[in-house]
Design goal:
Number of domains: 1
Number of strands: 0
Oligomer: single chain
Radius of gyration: 13 Å
Shape: globular
């Protein structure tokens, strides 16, 4: 897992009141840079095979390749 995400999630677990805003900011920044929040690789959601994968990228910032790491095998 991406070290930045681990740090932010640990802060969430520790009940840091600013952690959720920090997570949203991190995700928004990675999406704006067209990068994956997990692997940090450049990504182009327009090339994703399924609409649900594109939608998820714009929610979580996780690319099509890394989504199974978080959400398991997709049945759709």
């Amino acid at each position: 897992m991406n070290n930045t995400l681990v740090k932010i999630l640990d802060e969430l677990d520790g009940k840091n009141p600013k952690a959720l805003a920090e997570l949203r900011g991190f995700i928004d920044t990675t999406i704006a840079k067209k990068r994956c929040a997990e692997c940090e690789q450049l990504t182009n959601p327009d090339t994703y095979k399924k609409q649900i994968d594109r939608d998820e990228y714009f929610i979580s910032g996780i690319c099509e390749k890394c989504q199974p790491l978080y959400f398991g095998v997709k049945l759709i």
